[in-house]
Design goal:
With about 260 residues, the chain is mostly helical. It has one domain (about 1-45, about 60-255). The chain is built from 10 helices and no strands. Helix 1 (about 1-25) packs across helix 5 (about 105-130), helix 5 crosses helix 6 and helix 6 runs parallel beside helix 10 (about 230-255). It starts with a helix and ends with a helix. This is Transport permease protein.
Length: about 260
């Protein structure tokens, strides 16, 4: 119990440290909020007219749940960059030399980025409401959809933390971006996998982003929904956390002094 207490207490201290950095340097946060809005406007108004929604319906209502999912996926980049920056500047080694819980640094990073994701999701919801998106499910279903989105972000947090600790080089973020972007687009975020070649559609269908997008469309009652994906959307993030959570803590403990 004492170990758990200090893990939570030290983790909250690290979370406040990251929040203080954002308050003093808000530009990266603002850019992170504006970029997905630009994608919504571009796909919703410039390209959406040429995209057919499976089963019919308004394309922007089909798009917004996918965009919610996409912003959760893009969070890997910000987490990775923050972790690699601290590691390259020696900040992480400084923390490791202090009398604090060994997992507090990664727990604090996770807490700060999750709070940031809540803010991003709130802004995206406001953008969606402005362009005509509406949740047509009940209150419980809507809250469940938002819960799945944050669960996915929580899982990607641990992936970003692990990659940041292993790579430990801010210059490698570009390399990771070249992988994240294709994986993000290879999903049902913008179009249905049914419109893709068979083999490519199968890969896109079983993308964790596609599972969450399909589940949230079902819970929101938006066009293009496919039943049966809610359970899969919950299992995928739990598997990612089960794998990359312990790996992240282990990688942090093994960092060279």
């Amino acid at each position: 119990m004492s170990s758990l207490y200090w893990t939570v207490a030290d983790g909250w201290t690290m979370t406040r440290r990251d929040l203080a950095h954002w308050a003093r340097r808000p530009a990266p946060v603002v850019v992170g909020l504006l970029f997905p809005i630009l994608l919504v406007l571009m796909f919703g108004y410039l390209l959406g007219g040429a995209i057919a929604v499976p089963g019919g319906g308004d394309y922007r209502e089909f798009l917004l749940p996918g965009m919610f999912v996409m912003t959760m996926g893009f969070g890997v980049e910000s987490t990775l960059l923050a972790v690699t920056t601290d590691a390259s500047r020696g900040v992480t080694d400084r923390f490791r030399s202090m009398p604090m819980a060994p997992s507090a640094v990664v727990v604090g990073r996770c807490g700060a980025d999750l709070l940031n994701s809540v803010l991003v999701l709130a802004v995206m919801v406001g953008c969606g409401l402005a362009v005509g998106w509406r949740p047509h499910g009940g209150v419980g279903a809507t809250l469940g959809a938002f819960g799945l989105l944050l669960l996915l972000r929580f899982a990607f947090l641990w992936l970003g933390i692990y990659l940041g600790l292993v790579v430990a080089d801010p210059g490698a973020v570009t390399l990771v971006q070249t992988v994240i972007w294709p994986v993000t687009f290879l999903s049902n975020v913008f179009v249905s996998p049914d419109s893709m070649p068979g083999w490519l559609g199968a890969i896109a269908t079983w993308n964790p982003l596609s599972a969450t997008a399909a589940a949230t469309r079902e819970l929101f009652g938006n066009p293009g929904a496919a039943a049966g994906w809610i359970g899969v959307a919950a299992v995928w993030p739990l598997l990612l956390v089960a794998v990359f959570g312990p790996l992240s803590v282990r990688a942090f403990r093994r960092l060279s002094r």
